[in-house]
Here is the input.
Amino acid sequence: MKKIAIILVMIMTVSLTYAQNAKRTSAFNYLRYGKLDKAKAAIDEACVHAKTMNNAKTWFYKGNIYLEIANSTDEKYKDLDPDPFNVAYEAYKKTKELDNKNEYILEITPRIMACAAGFYNNGVKNYNEKLFIEAANDFKSAYDANIFMGTIDTSALYNVAVSAELGDDKELAKTTYNELIELNYNNPSMYVSFTDIYRAEKDSIKALEIIQIGRERFPDEFSLIISETNLFLAAGDTEKALKNLKLAIEKDTMNPTIYSAVGNMYDRIVADTTKTYEERMEAFKESEKAYKRAIYLKPDFFDAVYNLGALYFNEGVNVLLEADALPYGDPKYDEEKAKGDKYLEDSLPYLEKALELNPTDYNTLFSLKQIYSRTGQIEKYNEVNDKLKEQ
Here is the structure.
């Protein structure tokens, strides 16, 4: 009786093993005939059974079935799993892990790359729908799938960083940008984006460190020059900012914004009382020249128009104050007064143009009020004074 029992157990074991192999075979046949729902049910069962779960073929079939589900346009099958590309990818990874004889390596390689393409396409879809965190995860999956097969897809990794930044996952964005820098990714704009994250966090030291890595790799890149200049400006480093702006002009001679920024830099030197009179006057001439160039390139450029008017106005006020401070009867008084009045006269057309461009600007109205008062233009004085009262 014992021998019969042993034989019965052996028969049962063989039957169970056969049954599970049959499940796997059924899954394969269902896949061949496009019955993806039944193929999925059969292979899912085979993948959790002790007799077939450690067999490379089982996982290879699972990968194939789920890849078909992922690519299906049939309403009946395309929603059988919420994340079929990932299930397929994990199944192929498991296949490779169990495939000691490398029987499936040639077949799983293009299939894993198909999964990577599927992840990437999902990332594009989610990005376009402004689901940025989901997009970042999809692009990261595409990158990881390529890495698994020995390929580095830096474009997918860059999309991870951009999507993470837009999705406000700044830590993921920073980690990814750092990885791209280590990979020497050839994209200057990423340094600007990376720098902007640190600027928003008010970490000027780290921001400058990042942008200077970019400047070293792309010394002639205009966007990096401007980004670094903005950091110098924020730090009050006029000298370095001005040096960069002059370099920027060499790269783009027709950009009015840069000329206006150069004018502003020299304007700061004009107002710097630690500078000598000669240094201030030299800066005045350079500022005037830069603002005029900006206005020539863009006549309706309010900032440049107003700033040139303000440059003349402020210098005129300073000269007149110095004249008033002279001792009574000083022979220099008339000369200095005439000089100050000339500056105010020069400022007038630019301030009036600025008011035309922006009729409610307080600083423009206030400056014009003082000029009209000094020159006795009562009607214009009343007009700007009324506008000031309305603010």
Q: What stands out?
A: The chain has a mean pLDDT of 91. Residues 33-103 form one domain. The CA atoms of residues 366 and 388 lie 7 Å apart.
